[in-house]
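Methods — Computational structure assignment.
A single polypeptide chain was analysed. Its primary sequence is given first, followed by the predicted tertiary structure written as structure tokens.
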Amino acid sequence: MKFEIEFTGHENIRSNHQMTLEITKESHLTPRGDCIIGVNAKSSCADLPDELKNKLKNPDSKVNFSIKVGDEEFVMEGKGHPDLILSHAEDIVIRKSDFICPRTLAIKCDKASDLLPRSMVTLLQDPKTIGTFTIVIE
């Protein structure tokens, strides 16, 4: 199953958090939001289709993520969990840890926002930049 979420850049994108990566439907961003890689996202956890949420709640699900901006692509891998809540109306967060809250989409991910290529971060610091966050569950 595959689900794509479009988002835009913002001048305050830093992408230097070592444990999480986030996209948000919010349009504003302060420099403190150092895990956020995109704003104006078309979907949040709450907006995901039920079929996708059910697959994310399967602990055996292998979840792959990709972020595409221009010609660049960043790929990550994470895990689902039966305790995922997936109800946050604004945000999607993927985590290296096993912490779960309404914003958490996946846990035990192999990367976080600090590993996003700096060339991609530069592109994302332009509010006109459009990116795509893709979720694929095998």
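Note: The two ends are 7 Å apart (CA to CA).
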